[in-house]
Here is the input.
Amino acid sequence: MAIEVRIPTILRSYTGGAKQVEGKGSTLDELISDLDSRHGGLRDRLVDGGGLRRFVNVYLNDEDVRFLAALDTPVKDGDTVTVLPAVAGGAMAAAAAC
Here is the structure.
């Protein structure tokens, strides 16, 4: 068994078009490093300096890792990690349309 990682459309060029990939590690940081070893460049899109990029949301079994332990969040076989890019717009765009 492995950790399932769901990849957003914008990052699928790094995974050969795959919607989901499998990885291993005991923390989110190790998992991202493992993924990067097979899907080069992915880590740079997720991590900036010592933490997750500001506009990337990562969920472990539907829980935002920023409210857990960020890159130090423990992961295990059978977990699901979902990567979602933050989406801008909405309120400002609606106000401009009025």
